[in-house]
Structure formats: C-alpha cells, structure tokens
Amino acid sequence: MLTQLAFALRDIRRNPIVYFFFVVQLLVPIFFVSVTLTFMADSIRYIRRVHQVSDHEVVFFSPSIGAVQQWRFSRDAAALLVEVLDEDRRGYSYIENIALREHPNLNFVVGMGQFGEFFQLGSATREATQPLVLIGHNVNALEIGSPVRFGRSTTPLRVSDRLPPSSSFIARGALKSLDSSVLILAEAEEMMGYFFYDFEYWVEIAKNTCLIDPTGSELRTFVTRMLDESGMALNPLDLGTYAAHHHAGNFYGILYFLVFFGITLAFVVVGIVTNTLQLLDSRMAEYAIHLLSGAKMSHLYSRVVIYLLLLVSLPVIIVSAYVFPLFRIPLYTGLIRVLPLVVCVVALLASLPLLKLRSTDVVLHLRSDDQ
Amino acid sequence: MRIKHGGVFVLISVFLSCAMAVFVSYIVIQLDRALAAPFGLPAESATFRVRPRQMGGVRGEALANIVGQIAGLLQKEGTTLVYVDSDYGIGLQDPTGFFASEPLAQGAYFTAERFNSPDAIALVRLNSPTYRMLMQGSTVVNGRVLPVQGVFGEGHPLYAPAQFYVYNFMSTTTIEGTYYFSRNSTAVREILTLLTSYGYTYNEVPFIQGAGSLLRDMYLVLMTAGIVFIGFNCFFAYFVILSRHRAVFHIHRRFGATPKALLAKLLAATFPSMCLGSLLGVTIFAMVFRDFLGRFTSAWVPIAFLASVAVSAFLLVVTFLSQRSGGAKEGRLC
Q1: Do A262 and A129 share a structural domain?
Q2: Nearest chain B alpha carbon to A231
Q3: Does ipTM exceed 0.90?
Q4: For residue A160, which phi and psi values (nearest 5 degrees)?
C-alpha cells in the first residue's frame, strides 16, 4: 500500500497545478454546501418546532434599543413578572447567560412560567417546591442524580432526568437546542429572590418573556406596565408572523445558495472523474510496465483510489478545521463523523475510472499504434 | 451532422442554466437594489447616519425640543424626511405630501396637521407582526398603544422588509438612526448642526449605492468563482463528448469541410439541446423559487436563459477549437 501511496504522490507531483486546482474547486463548494446544509437542517427543525406550537398564539418582545438607558429595576416590575409567569401562568421566560462556578463549561438554561409544559420538557415530574434539573442529551459532565449548586442556595439541586435528543425551545423567534445544556425549571419568584438577588436577572427575564395566547388587553396591560414600572419599551412580535417572514425567507435563501453550490459541486465531480480518466489514459503505458513487472490489477486500482482520496481529503480537512469549531465539535470527532462520507465520495469518483481500467487490456496498450 | 449524446447536452444545460439562474438573479436583484432610490425619494436626496457620541443620547423634554426644531426646519424648506429608527419603525415628516398620492391597502394617509402634532399615529405594513396585532385589536409599539390610520402594502414606496410601521416623526422617542432627506438643503445642514450640538455624530452615506457596491459583495465573488469552476468542468465534459466525434470530424474534413463549417454544423446540431436544457433549467428554478423571488424584479429570467445558452455555446466553441480536430493534417486519420 505504501508503494501505491508513493505512486499516487508521484502522480500529484507530476502535475501539481491540476491537483491544487481541483482541491480549490472542491474547497469552495464543499464549504458552502456543508454550511448551507447545516443551516437548512436548523431551518427545517425550526419550521417543525413552530408548527408544533402553532395551535397557540405566542407573542415575544423586542425591547426598543433607543430606550435602553431608561431601564430601571423596580419591585413592581418584578412583581408583574411573577404575576404573569408564576401566578397566572400566561407565558414563559428563560435565562441563558447563567454561568455556574462548578461547571464553567456547561450551558445553563433556566426556564420559568410555562416553559416546561409549553415545550414538553418533562415538567410533569416537577415538585412545586423544588426546581427541576434536566440535562441535555449530549451532556456528559453530569449524570442523573448529580448535585448542582445553584445561586445562593446552600442545598444542591439534583439532576432528575435526561432530556430526549433534539430537545429545543424558541427564544425570541429563534430555535435553541438543549442537547448540550442543563435545563433548570424554576419559578420566576425563586430566580428573583431565593436563588439570586432580584436585580440580577430581572432584565433577562423581562426581555425574554413570551405571552401565550394573550388577549389584546392582556398584551396592552403587560407592555404598558413594563414601560411605566421599569422604563423598558417593548415591541410585541407574534411568533407565527415572525416565523413565516423570517424563516420561510431564510429557508429559501439557504436553498438558493445550496442549489448553486450543489450544482458547482456536481460539475466539479464530473471534472474530477474526467480528469482521472485522462490521468489513466496518460499512464496506461506505465501501468502496463507495472503489470509486466509483477504488479496486480488491485495495485493499480488502489493507486487510483489513493490519488482520489488525497484529492478529496485535503479540502475536507481544511473545511472541517474551519466549520467544526463553529459548531463546537472537536475536529477529531468531526473528521471521524465525515469519514464514511469521504469514503463514499471517493468510491463514487473512482467507480467510472476503475471500470474503465478493468475493461481495458492494459498490457495490450503497450503494443498500440499510439505508442 | 448528427451529434450523439443530445440528452447529455440537455442535462448539462439544465444544471448550467440552474446555476446561471442563481448567479444572474442574484446580480440583477442586487443591482436593482443598489441602483434604486430608497423609499422612491428623488435623486437629489441625501442620507445621513446619526448616532450618539455616548450611550443613551437625549431623552424627555430635550428630545421633544430637538424633534420640534427638526420638524420646523423641514416644514420651512418643504423637505421630506424618512427616518429609519433602530427598532422596527419609520418616522415620517412629509410637509409637501410627497407620499400622499401613493395608494394604501386600507385607511388614509396622514393629514398635514398630523405631522405637526406630537401625538403618535401610524400606518402599519400589511402582514407584518404589527398588522397582526392590529387585527387582534392591540397595536402596541415601543411600549405604547399606537392609533393606526392606515395599512400599506408591498407596492408602497415606504415598504421595507425590516420595518413594520410608519409614524409621524414628531412622535418619535429616539433620534438615532438613518435620515433620508428629499434634498440636501440648508435646513438639512441646520438639522445636522443641531444634532451635533446635542452630542450626536453623523456620517453621510451614498443615497444610491451604485453598481460598484456589488464588487464588495462576498457572495457574488464566491459565486463568480463557482461559475468559473462550472465553466471549466463543463468544458471538460464537452471535451470528452467531442473526443468521441473526432473521427467523424476528420471524415468531414476529408470531404472538404472547413473547420468553420464544421463548427457551424456542430453548433446547429447542439443548439436545440442547449436551448431546451436552458429553458428547462430556468423554468424549474423559477418555479421552485417562485415565492422567494416573486417580490423582486423578474428581469433575470430572460437574461439567465440567454446567458446560459451563450455560455454553453461559447464553451462548445472553445472545446472544439482546443481539440484541433478541425485542422487535421492531410494523411492522418486522427
């Protein structure tokens, strides 16, 4: 195999411009196709999630950027949030930016109000007095029963269950995965008094509040009271319209670029196959000499496959080194994941040249009039 | 001359035309945006981006005072202002009734008195989240209930994808954002001086972006690279197809055909396949992206078709010439 690798490297060395030209040709569409496919998968997950909750009218809020300086904490504003989320249970809210000293590398999401029920995240087992701790499907740092020290409380909470894979929630119109997060379902009142000081997270809770099926007067009352009691000027946006506009546009926008770079990739594949066929034609005499010197056809096949593997793997490694860190996937793990795909692509690329090689009488080629 | 592989030519043209449709539609749409005057304002308009020197900016009575002065200056010189705020709204000061004749989907345009009143009133964009709220009887904007006077649709010049409503500028709660003035008058200079005196900075941005802005578009650069790759590999595919016809070309040469005549016959033989493939490709693309591209200009459709046929024909000519089969020497078969 090492001999065939050396021969494949010699094929590259003989014509490095062609090799690097195809590497660059693969690099651009592979990068865009992989990125757009990821976005496409996210977009499809989003559309499905929005569809799941489409029976309800969800209204989230965008605070007016121009009025940020006027925000002020008030007990009345905190009381309004407790009233809406805990007492009336007219919506949900969440905090995403909590970092715990004992687990600095874990994402913590605290869901309040109807968060658990609305996104069907295991709130059925929750006891009224105790927050429920759930770990995402990909979280390995904690196990069921592991203690979690949370906020000012000295009594640790215990992880009670693991979330099913692809658990997610909708945050300000966008889908957020919970697969790598720890979810704590708690009361807004606990978050603004028992576990943390009331002024610590009230802005997060207020900004992220979503009302479920609010009536016109409920909406007006909530927004007006928030403005009066905290200076936070909120713009209500309904999830249905927002999702239809933004993510239907996103979906087709992604598909638009996916079509282009998908076609580019298809043409590059055609180009590589054609180039490999030309390479075989130009090396027939050499192959014939190899066969006469004791090589087997399998050696010739492996030389072609190794050449294609070298051609495909370089752009895949470059793209992986850039794309996987974006999604917090270690490069090594990512490369192992894409390895079967690379093997399939190489098999696809090699199939036609190998069939041609198989059907050609290579030794006879030495006696051809072309020589 | 009869060329085999007509189906392959059609297939290549379908894919090539789909890619050309993306490329051309992107250029045409971006060009249309870059050359269009924002909000249908006249060509002599000026655009300024205003932001506070320090976080926060002016609030309360000082804000009302500045807004009142800006409205007065605009009123005096008959200059229209379209103010795009940092949220989802457009503030409008239209003393000359520049937008008054534009048809609305529902309701009526602001009366002249409305522009001089600090009481907020709005026009809502059709099918926006604010419109949905209106349908449910609660149009709340920036923490306040907003009375709605009318609804405007996509054809209206004030339509902007990221903005949901238009309000009278006198009722604005913020003055940082982008200002579009219908002319660069003395009043505009005075307004900018006024804003500067209250701790704001401004920078003028080109009113019309111009075609040059496309050169800075990263997507376009990468798509151009993609088109080059497609062209190169298409050339490769044609090369393999024409290689199989080399003997046929030589026989034609033996009987007196010139390379030019051979090329003409080759083009004539493949042209229907190219046209059919391009037509199919552009049609399929247009059907799939009907909703997505529907709101933009459709000028790209014929351009994409013609560009696809032209590129296919050009690549075929280049491939034919590169094969040198038209110039085979006497006495050699191939």
Answers
A1: no
A2: B143
A3: no
A4: -100, -20
Q: Domain check: are A126 and A73 in the same one? A: yes
Dist CA A123 CA A131 (whole Å): 10
Q: How far is A67 from chain B (nearest CA, A)?
A: 8
The C-alpha angle with vertex B139 and arms to B138 and B141, in degrees rounded to 5, equals: 135
Residues A215 and A87 placed together within one structural domain of the fold:
yes
HSE of A279, CA atoms in CB hemisphere, 13 A? 28
Q: What are residue A62's DSSP bridge partners? A: A235
Domain coordinates in residue numbering, chain B: 6-36+213-327, 38-207
Domain with A219, as residue range(s), is: 65-232
Q: Under a CB-based contact definition with an 8 Å cutoff, are residues B139 and B62 in contact? A: no
Query: pLDDT of A189-210, one tens digit each?
Result: 887 776 776 677 888 888 899 9
| In contact, B175 and B192? CB cutoff 8 Å | no
Instruction: Provide the shortest C-alpha distance from residue B56 to chain A (in Å).
Output: 5
CB A192 within 8 A of CB A202: yes
Q: Could you give the number of structural domains in chain A?
A: 2
Task: Report CA Rg, chain B.
Answer: 29
CB contact under 8 A, B57 and A223: no
A224 touches chain B (CB under 8 A): yes
A126 and A217 inside one domain: yes
Q: Which residues of B touch A255 (CB under 8 A)?
A: 288-289, 292
Q: Are A295 and A304 in contact (CB under 8 A)?
A: no
Q: Could you report the average pLDDT of every consecutive run of 10 residues in chain B (334 residues)?
A: 74 91 88 86 90 76 88 88 89 90 90 85 86 78 83 89 88 89 88 90 87 83 90 87 83 86 89 92 87 73 91 92 60 42
DSSP per-residue codes, A290-352: HHHTT--HHHHHHHHHHHHHHHHHHHHHHHHHHHHHHTT--HHHHHHHHHHHHHHHHHHHHHH
Q: Are residues A298 and A166 in the same domain?
A: no
